[in-house]
Amino acid sequence: MDERSDMDKSDEVLLPDFRFHPTDEELVGFYLKRKIQQKPLSIELIRQLDIYKYDPWDLPKLASSGEKELYFYCPRDRKYRNSARPNRVTGDGFWKATGTDRPIYSSEGTKCIGLKKSLVFYKGRAAKGIKTDWMMHEYRMPSLNDPSLPKTPKDKNIPAL
């Protein structure tokens, strides 16, 4: 083992009192946008991981940051080759979308910069799945021809979670 690898390991420090708690606007307008543009950050706050290869209780130990809220970049897998329907099945269950996509607006409140979907984890298979307390929010950039994309904001004072 050389001195360089020892130094690299000693340089890996947790930032004291650091809390990663981005707003919806920051998640979409900064982090997701940079990821799509392939502009890396100097520190990996959000890890890329195919979360559907894991059950939700396995994810906390795989996260780069977060305590109660975990953040991952995840490629969208399709259920069928020629379908837009995403595949959200894991080893022991599936993630089911609840409600409709909610728009995320820029801080000026005039432009929709992303969409947020809420999902709940069900243990078992689709027809007989048992709802759990695990919940996830999926963020995505809107496409120009997205039918769920709102034309104008309904409320300019949209709170960030």
Automatic annotation (TrEMBL):
Name used for this protein in its record: NAC domain-containing protein
Signal peptide annotation: none
Domain of life: Eukaryota
Compartment(s) of residence: Nucleus
Residue span(s) of domain NAC: 14-161
UniProt organism field: Panicum miliaceum
GO molecular function, one term: DNA binding
GO CC annotation: nucleus
Pfam families in UniProt: NAM
Keywords: DNA-binding, Nucleus, Transcription, Transcription regulation
GO BP terms in the entry: plant organ development; regulation of DNA-templated transcription
